[in-house]
Write a structure and sequence with these properties.
This protein is mostly beta strands. It is built from 2 helices and 10 strands, in the order ββββαββββαββ.
Length: 105
């Protein structure tokens, strides 16, 4: 996906409620970590982590582009960011076929 016109590799995580960016990806897409308010918590396989709400200027997958997308930044060492259900639910169809993710609106 392209977040704020920067390529970000996501893991599709149907167990995640939101888009969750790791600190490295957040910095790469222009989010200033020093000015975030870590006011939430998320339960992960590695325990509870603090979260900061953010709004992504843009998120694009192929020809599909959305603006003002809500997400969170995790205060945790996250190797890859997670694309959760808050974004996936925007699609009429989400399926995996022959090792390909199919998203339709």
């Amino acid at each position: 996906a392209q977040v704020n016109d920067v390529s970000v590799h996501f893991i599709i995580d149907t167990g995640a409620s939101s888009i969750a960016l790791g600190p490295r990806d957040a910095e790469r897409v222009g989010i200033d970590l020093a000015n975030l308010a870590y006011i939430g918590e998320a339960r992960t396989a590695n325990g509870t982590v603090e979260t900061a709400p953010v709004r992504l200027n843009s998120l694009a997958i192929g020809d599909i582009r959305d603006e003002g997308v809500p997400a969170m930044v995790l205060r945790a060492d996250l190797d890859q960011s997670l694309m959760g259900m808050s974004y996936l639910s925007r699609f009429a169809r989400v399926s995996i076929e022959a090792n390909r993710l199919i998203l339709e609106r």
